[in-house]
Write a structure and sequence with these properties.
By secondary structure, the protein is an all-alpha fold. The protein has 3 domains: 80 residues, no CATH class; 105 residues, TIM Barrel (Alpha-Beta Barrel), CATH 3.20.20.370; 40 residues, no CATH class. It is built from 12 helices and 2 strands. It has a two-stranded parallel sheet with strand order 1-2. Strand 1, helix 8 and strand 2 form a beta-alpha-beta unit. Helix 10 packs across helix 12 and helix 11 crosses helix 12. The radius of gyration is 24 Å and the shape is elongated. It starts with a helix and ends in a 5-residue tail after the last helix.
Length: 255
């Protein structure tokens, strides 16, 4: 292994090890010869922008579902191996909205709801952290602007991202309701499993990117078709997609 290393060109070493190495110690060589291929190694073949985006999304998804210390350690390790310097502040395009911007937009009629302080997956946190993230985000929002609504929104919002504990904390924090990211209409069927806490597990639709989807969502046609079919077969999201495509076709728009 070491003989091979010292015969490699500098560029090849950087490509293989994702960093600039000038030597390979006995300990490092032994580690490379006893790699756990399931836990410590992964291969990624990138062809073009679509593949890069897919890998980026996969990485972001994996980082989202690990603890904060693990996430920080992973990002630090990746930056070191890829020889990338991390900036102390996020780029302007990725920076969060400032409180001055919140107040400015509020003057135009916008309202804001709490979404935690550090955006963790609440179901993965301790009782203390879960309570603090929900209560502190609401307290700070009310402190910074009058344009707040007493409606909480769970980070990620998938069914596995929240549970009865999170619903109970949201109720105790003084909210009137809380939203998930489960795409559906807020009906008794959706909230019935949560009993009296149902209003703290409301489904919602993401804002559509085109007009046909907006029309379909607000009119409730997908739900009507889903009900007519007895709730069987395709999911509500699939029904919406098909109806939106047909609406665009009728309007002379490309699908």
């Amino acid at each position: 292994m070491q003989e091979l290393f010292y015969r490699l060109p500098e560029e090849d070493i950087h490509t293989r090890f994702f960093q600039k190495l000038t030597s390979l110690t006995d300990v490092a060589a032994q580690h490379l010869c006893s790699v756990d291929y399931e836990k410590e190694m992964a291969f990624a073949a990138v062809i073009g922008p679509p593949e890069r985006e897919r890998i980026q999304q996969d990485l972001l998804s994996r980082l989202e579902w690990i603890t904060a210390p693990e996430r920080e350690a992973t990002i630090t390790s990746l930056s070191r191996h890829l020889d990338v310097e991390l900036s102390e502040r996020p780029p302007a395009a990725c920076a969060p909205i400032t409180w001055d911007e919140v107040r400015s937009v509020a003057k135009r009629g916008a309202t804001f709801g709490p979404h935690t302080v550090t955006h963790p997956i609440l179901s993965m946190e301790t009782d203390e952290v879960c309570r603090w993230e929900i209560e502190e985000s609401y307290r700070r929002l009310r402190q910074e602007t009058d344009a707040y609504v007493p409606v909480f929104c769970y980070p990620n919002g998938e069914p596995r991202a929240f549970g009865r504990r999170e619903l109970d904390v949201a109720q105790r924090a003084g909210f009137r309701a809380a939203l998930t990211t489960v795409p559906d209409y807020a009906t008794s069927r959706c909230v019935r499993p949560w009993g009296a806490l149902g209003r703290f597990a409301l489904p919602r639709f993401p804002y559509p990117e085109d007009r046909p989807h907006v029309v379909l969502t607000v009119t409730g046609l997908p739900r009507l078709q889903w009900i007519v079919r007895g709730g069987r077969g395709k999911t509500l999201s699939e029904v919406m997609g098909r109806l939106a495509a047909r609406s665009m076709l009728c309007a002379g728009l490309p699908e």
